[in-house]
Every structure is written in C-alpha cells, then in structure tokens.
Amino acid sequence: MIPFAYNLRSLKVRKATTAAGALGLGLVVLVFALVMMMVNGVEGAMRRAADPRVAIVLRKGASGEMDSWIDEAGVSLVGAAPGVSHAVDGRAAAVVELVVSMLLDDPRGGQFNVTLRGVPEDVMTFRSTAAMVEGRPPRPGTDEAIIGQALRAKGLAVGGAIEMRKNRPMRIVGVFEDEGSAFESEIWGDTNVIRGTFGRQGIVSSVRVRLDSPGDFDRFKASVESNRQLNVAAMRDSEFYEKASRGTALFLSAMGFLIAAFLSIAAIIGAMITMHATVAQRRREIGTLRALGFSRREILASFLLESIVLALMGGATGTAVALLASLKRVTIINLSTWSDLSFKFEPTPRILVTAIVIAGVMGILGGLFPAIRAARVHPIQAMRGG
Amino acid sequence: MTLVSIAARNALRNKFRTIMTVLGIAIAVLAFVTLRTILHAWNVGLESAAKDRLATRAKVSFVIPLPKRYIDDVAAVPGVKIASYANYFGGQWPKDANQSLATMAAADNIFDIYPEMSVAPAALAQWKADKKGAIIGDVLAKRLGIHVGDNVVLTGTIYPGDWEFTVDGLYTAPEQSAVDHSTFYFHWDYLNDGAPPHQKGFIGLILTRVDDPSKSAAVSRAIDGIFDDRDVQTATMSERAMTNSFLGGITAVLDALDFISIVTLLIMMLILGNTVAMGVRERTAEYGVLRALGFDPWHVRTLIVAETLTVSLGAAVLGCAMAYPLLGAVGRWFEENMGQFFPTFRVTSVTLAVALALSVIVGGLASLIPALRAGRIQVTDALREIA
Q: What is the mean pLDDT of chain A?
C-alpha cells in the first residue's frame, strides 16, 4: 500500500486548492448538520414536555389539545378510571387544562401566536420538572399569569401585562423554566379567567393523569375509551408529543434535506475538480509509482483515500461551525398548535457522526472518477510525460 | 480578435474542468433560484390579492369565534359592499387521514366575495338549494378523485361527528389569482344545525368587499370600532395580513432559507475560485511569455477575469434554464397542495436577473486574487518555469 503520508503531504503542497475543495464540502455538511440539529431540537423540546408515567386524554378525533374539549362530567370519569395514581389525601393525580392560542404583538415588529394554558393551582406538583426562576406563582382565581422563560425574548417580563379583553389584562407575576421543554414557550394562567375570555365555559381541553405504573396504561386506556358517553381517546404523553412534533419535524427535514442534497451535488463536483487537477498534475508521479510496482488497485485506493481525507477535513470544519449554532435559541411555528415554539439547535453524538459520514460519502463520490483515472495511467507514457 | 474573446476561448482549453465547473455552478445557481423563488412566493405571492377584500377575526385569538350577529353590524358599515362569513371546519378525509383539507362552512354569498372563483350558475343554484351541498375546488376534486354528484363523508376534528355532503359543483380560478384552488365549501347553516350546543351561533371569520379599495384602512377601523366595547373585540385586516397572523412563526424557516441561499453563493465562489486558481497556476509560463512580449499586467488580468466571467455567466444561464422547467413542475405541486400558503409559485424574471447579476459578481470576486497574483508575476520567474 502507498504510505498515507504521501497523501497528507500532497494535500499540504496544494494548500489553497485543498482548502477550497474542503470548504465547499464543509458548507454542505454545515447545512446538513444544522437541519438535523434543528429537527432534533424541535423533537427534543416536545419530548421533554412528556412524562413517561403520564397519560393524556383528549376528545376522540381531536388533532391536539387546541381542538379537543371535554366537559366536567368527563373529567371526573377520567379521574376515577383504574390505574390512576392517588395522592395521600385521596385525590387523583391529574391535571385538567384548557389550551388556547392567542395573538400578541412582537416588540421586533409583527405579531406572533402563543399558547395560553389554563392550569390548576398545583400544576407544579404534577409537573415536577417545572420551577419558578423569577417572581412568584400566580394566586389561584386571579388574573395573574406566569410565562415560560423563552418568552422573555419576545419582550414579556414580570410586571408586564397581556391584553385579554379590553381593560381586562392578565398580569405577569413570574417566569418559569422546564428543562428547555415546549412549556417554556407557553403562558400559564388561571383556567376560569381564560375560559371567560375564550368562551369555553364548562369545558377543558385535556386531562393528564399520572398512572401507578407505566404498565397500567392499557387498563386505563381500555376503561376510558370503552365509555361511549365520554367519547375520548387516551394516549401516552410521550406518544402525544411525538405525534405533535411530527408535522414540524417532517416539514423541516423534507425542506432541509432536499436543499442540502442539491448543494451536495455542487460540492461533490467541486471536490471532483480538485481531485481531477491533482491527478493531472501528478501523472508523472503516478507513472513512477506504477513502475515501482504499486498495483492499479493501490493507486485507486490511495487517491480515493486522499479525497476522503479532504472531505473529512471539510466535514470536521462544517460540524464544528454547526456546533456553534447550538448556543443560539430560535423560534419556529409549531404546526400542531399554530403557536411559536422556542428551541435550541441540539447536537447529539449521532448527528455529529452522521455529518462526518456524509462528508466521507461526498469525498468518495467526488474522488472516485479521478481515482479511476489515476489508476488507468500508463506507467511508461506517464514517465515520458505523455 | 479582442483580448476578451481570446479569454472566452481560453475557457475551453481544459474541457473537462470547465464542463465540471459549469455544471457545479449551474447546480448552485439552480439551488439559489429555488430558494429565492420560495421566499418570493411567500412574501409577495399575493401581490395579485384583491385589494378590496378584508377579513375580520377575533383580536385576541383565532380560536375565539365571533357571535353570528356581528355579521349584521359589519354589513351595515358604510363602504362595505358585501359581507360574508365562514368557519374553518378542517375535517379528515376517511380514506387518507394525512390529506390536509381546507374545509370551510360558509354563508351562501361566499362566492360573491371571490369573483375570481367561477362556479357554473346552475351548480351554484343547486348548491344554494341543497342543505348538505358542497362546492369544491377543481384541483381538490382531482386530488381526491371526487366527481360532481358524489356523496362525501368527512370526520370532524373541531366539530365532532361524521358529516355527509353532496358535491354539487366545482369552482375554478385563473392560475395567477391569489385564491386557493383546493378549498371545500359547504353551508354554514348545515354546520350550525349539527354542531354541539356550545359551538352553535358562532362564525370564525367575517369576509368583506369594500366599495373603494383606497378606503380599506378607514373601513377596517370602522368595523373594529363597532366591537370595541363588546364581549369580543375584532381585528380587521387585509387577506395577506390574515395569513401572516396565522403563520408568523414561519419566519424562522424563511430566515434559514435566506441563510442557505448565501451559503449557495459561497459554494459557487469556492468552486469557481479553485478552477481559476488552477488555470492560472498551470499557465504561469504563458503569462510570462505574454509579459516578455510586451503585454501589460492588466492584459493578463483581463484575460483571467474575462475567462472566469465567461464560465460563471455561462453556468448561470444553464442554471436558470434548468430552474425554469423544474420549478414550473414543483410550483404546480405547491399551488395544488399548499394553495393556502402559496397560491402562486412561479419563477420571476427578477429572480433570474438577480441570479445572473450575482453570478457575475461572484465570478469577479473569485478571479480577483488569482488575477492580482498573476499580474504581479515577475517575467523572469515565470519564464524559469518553462525550463
């Protein structure tokens, strides 16, 4: 086999060309990595909102919490279903919520939709991951509200107000966090106050219950769904959020990967040009190597390897730049609620490896034809300079 | 023979490299034009939107419905020619739950709001008399394989239950208009009769046409003024603003597309710059000979820049030529399947002109450093390379 150092030295001699070829591939890897991190960020924000021991009950046929409604009678029936865990005082571990969307003015111009969630007083007990980071929890039965910390970027803050109806503002008294979940993009307030404004008297959107154990889900589901009067469907919380993120994630990946695939063709051609020139310049060298006894296969492998190294250098650069993006928070429309969802570009080891592998594949595709050409070099002719 | 034409011919000296460069840049141009077309379709796609059309929704949230009686107040506002209303019904197509349907329960005069939608008079009359009747877009009918006279059942998502309809007719609309070709219209009364008690008596949107488009803003204010002290305040806006109020959050995606279109330009620059640099390196000796014969450095530079511009412009023309038929096909798909957001999805001549202009700029920038360097070459150094 031709020593690897030969390839490294050859890449080093043609510094500018190497850098241009590698950067072209690196930019494409950057786009691929950003798309993957974006999709993972959206899915992650939703996934963190889910609790493995929790089941959610919605109206049958509803596409999400926004278009679901359950009446008071339904709520008590769900709470009494088998498998639901109970607190020491005998109350069911359940959280009954009303979910609506509302339009707010964006201080940077334009408007945005935000999810407004009517929550019970003990919501933080049920969602133990959520915690206040500023101010205090709202007093029940009042027009006080708390905001997820992602909404600070939208100009909302403690002491501010959200106009619900003319002269009927909701006052912001606190900010909460929830490990970066989708809840951090929401406003939480008193169910009854929200009901009044939104004309939802007597109904709620969803009931979440904590089960004694995750294994109790099937029993619980069978019980609530068999009740025809109730006309509801039960899902594991995790399944619900997985489904809710699917639309947005699919939209992003379809669009992102299509564009990235396009760009990768251009970058592969760029790498091909670089490698082709290298081969042309080194005909004499290749002829000598062949004359020294290296086989066609070894020449092919050597040039292919060189192209892969070039691509991996670009891939590593692109991935490193993509990692910088993970410091930034972005907002995007959540296609399951039509409200804004704030998330981070989230890298995972798998995404980073995939990005590097994509770079390697592009290197192979770009280097294959030049390498074949190199392998076909006739030793005598090449050494003669023909 | 001018220097520039020699430079253009020079491009064909290394045919393989030139062809690959042209191909690579053409694809980058294609990607660039695609991205700009999506952005354009989103931002100004509704330039052809009717200026005399306004939409009124609840100010606080699109999930808050308006009391039905609001329609009478709006109709009485001076300057309002026609007032109609509609509720978004949604609904699932039982044969394929993934089909997204724009189903609207509308007032009987809804087609007077959209004069660009044409319905056969007989079909319209039949629809008005048919309680369960529906008029649907011709594109939707084709997509779902529905024919006039068919019975259709949709499962309600917002309004519970299975809803039965008879398709009485199709509507068509000119290609370049701002209206969606895939909406499913049925009677609001039918929806209201079958809706559960708490969903009765409400309308989602009020749609109006005004007498004088230049007074739209005043009419909007007048409409919102009526409801200022009522239970539900309203916000009246143009059709376009209405779409944006639903989809404002899409801006992050648009920003991302914007960013990627710049990345595309960078990739173009790298491919082109690399090719130029290689060409210059190989021809150092030639440039030395030219200089020795008495040509000035700027002659050499012109040669290089002109050759690069020939390649980049040629590639851009090829890219644009590929973009036209491709985006024509993609655009039709967008118009048919995502008509609510992209009623017209076309490549515009402005986008193509921008792509051509940018490729010239990119070509100039890419050849800048190699050209400067080549001009600075010492004749003796260059000639030594021959020996």
A: 89
Higher pLDDT, B345 or A162: A162
Q: What is the DSSP string of A297-356?
A: HHHHHHHHHHHHHHHHHHHHHHHHHHHHHTT-EEEEEETTTTEEEEEE----HHHHHHHH
CA angle (B228, B247, A348) in 5-degree steps: 135
pLDDT confidence of residue A103: 87
Are the C-beta atoms of residues A135 and A170 closer than 8 Å to each other? no
Chain A positions touching B90 (Cβ under 8 A) are: 63, 67
Whether residue A308 contacts residue A271, with contact meaning beta carbons closer than 8 Å, is answered with no
Choose the mutation target among A23, A42, A166 for the interface with B, i.e. most B CBs under 10 Å: A166
* Secondary structure, 3-state, A141-197: CCCEEEEEHHHHHHCCCCCCEEEEECCEEEEEEEEEECCCCHHHHEEEEEHHHHHHH
pLDDT higher at B65 or B180: B65
Residues of B in contact with A340 (CB under 8 A): 248-249
Closest CA to B313 of B9, B26, B4: B26
B370 shares contact with chain A (CB less than 8 Å): no
User: Model pTM?
Assistant: 0.84
The interface residues of chain B toward chain A in range 181-210, judged by CB-CB distance below 8 A, are 198, 202
Task: Say what the pLDDT of residue B48 is.
Answer: 54
Interface predicted TM-score (ipTM): 0.81
Q: Are A156 and A171 in contact (CB under 8 A)?
A: no
Helix ranges (DSSP H) in chain B: 3-10, 15-44, 70-75, 110-113, 121-129, 138-144, 188-194, 216-226, 239-247, 251-282, 284-292, 297-337, 349-376, 379-384
Q: Above 90 in pLDDT, residue B109?
A: yes
Q: Which residues numbered 275-304 in B keep a CB inside 8 Å of some CB on A?
A: 275, 277-278
Question: Does B18 reach chain A within 8 Å, measured CB to CB?
Answer: no
Q: Amino acid letter at B172?
A: T
Q: Which of residues 164-223 of A touch B (CB under 8 A)?
A: 164-166, 197-203
Closest-CA residue of chain B to A104:
B60
- Rounded Cα distance between A40 and A352, Å, is 12
Q: List chain B residues with CB under 8 Å of A61.
A: 92, 155-157, 160
Nearest to B28 among A113, A165, A266 (CB): A266
- Chain B hits for A274, Cβ within 8 Å: 274
pLDDT computed for residue A195 by the predictor: 86
pLDDT > 50? residue B387: no
Q: Which amino acid is at A79?
A: G
Give per-residue pLDDT as tens, B314-371.
999 999 999 989 888 888 877 777 766 676 778 888 899 999 999 999 999 999 888 9
Neighbours of B385 (CB within 10 A): 13
Q: What SS3 state is found at B345?
A: coil
CA–CA separation, A102 vs A339, rounded Å? 8
Identify which of A114, A112, A125 has the alpha carbon closest to the alpha carbon of residue A147. A114
Contact B61 A198 (CB under 8 A): yes
Torsion angle of the four alpha carbons B80, B86, B88, B89, in this order, in degrees rounded to the nearest 10 = 180
Count chain A–chain B contacts defined by CB atoms under 8 A: 178
Determine the average pLDDT of the residues in B69-91.
93
Residue A310 in contact with residue A299, Cβ under 8 Å? Answer: no
Phi-psi category of residue B270: left, alpha or beta, with phi > 0 → left and psi -120 to 50 → alpha:
alpha
